[in-house]
Amino acid sequence: PQQPRNSKHDQIISSIPIKTRSIMGSDNKPETKAEPKKINPFTVLIPCLVFLFVGTGIAAIIFNFDGNKDKYEEKIAAAAAQDLHWLFLGIVVFGRMVVYTNFYSMGFKSELKGNVRANPFYYRTDSGDSVVLESEGNLGRFNRANRSVQHMVENFGSFLVGMVLAGNIFPKAVFFLVCIYSLGRVLHQSGYTGGYGGHGLGFVLANVIAGQTMDGLCLLVYLKGSGTI
Questions:
Q1: Contact 219, 89 (CB under 8 A)
Q2: What average pLDDT does range 208-213 have in this prediction?
């Protein structure tokens, strides 16, 4: 006999507007009921640039007002003499790609609310049953805690490289950024474990303040090294 469908999970998937869902056809190929949702790439670029603007502003404050400006300029000049300032620009470009790819995918599940947004993937069995992460009890908390770890891995590439390169020029500033980032990731995980939305403060500390300031420091090295400013 046919097994009953998981009504709870079906309700979650069914909450997505019909234009963004697909069903399985008789040939096991997706059949779209309506025109698939389209993401405007220029809209996705907005957070990429806004975050970098914020980070560069903080970086400029560090550069000009922490009392080590002369040392910074000397180190940047030495790096630029070997064309290494291009590596710093590469970190900035890589960082924009990371932000873009993360925000691009989020657009497809913008209609979803609550813990179901923690799912990195949504599945449907051949029989039509929806499959999502367990969101209740300790298993739900376990899933969200691990989703926070996955989110960190998705986003910290440019930060890790920046620790090495920018750390050679702004060692003390980078140390404090690492501390802020680490605190942010801890708060992100503990907040996410309690429920979707509780990770907001951790996201701001780690990804916006620490992460984007690291990219901002790298951008300053390129702009100074290339003679743009």
A1: yes
A2: 97
* Residue with tokens 């770890």, as numbered in its chain: 149
| Dihedral angle, C-alpha 164, 166, 167, 168, nearest 10 ° | 90
Tell me if residue 131 falls in helix, strand or coil.
Answer: strand
Return the biggest CA–CA distance within the chain. 78
Sign of CA dihedral 145, 151, 153, 157: negative
SS3 67: coil
Contact 220, 168 (CB under 8 A): no
The answer, as to whether pTM is greater than 0.85, is: no
As a whole number of angstroms, the distance between CA 154 and CA 147 comes to 10
For residues 36 and 203, give the distance between their C-alpha atoms in angstroms, rounded to a whole number: 30
Q: Are strands 22-24 and 30-32 parallel, antiparallel or unpaired?
A: antiparallel
Between 198 and 93, residue with greater pLDDT:
93
Residues 102 and 164: their CA atoms lie apart, in Å, by 24
The rounded distance, in Å, linking the Cα atoms of 115 and 102 is 18
At 123, is the secondary structure helix, strand, or coil? strand
**What is d(CA 136, CA 142) in angstroms, rounded to the nearest whole number?**
10
C-alpha distances in angstroms, 83 versus 11, 36, 79, 86, 163? 56, 45, 6, 6, 19
Residue 124: phi and psi, rounded to 5, are: -140, 130
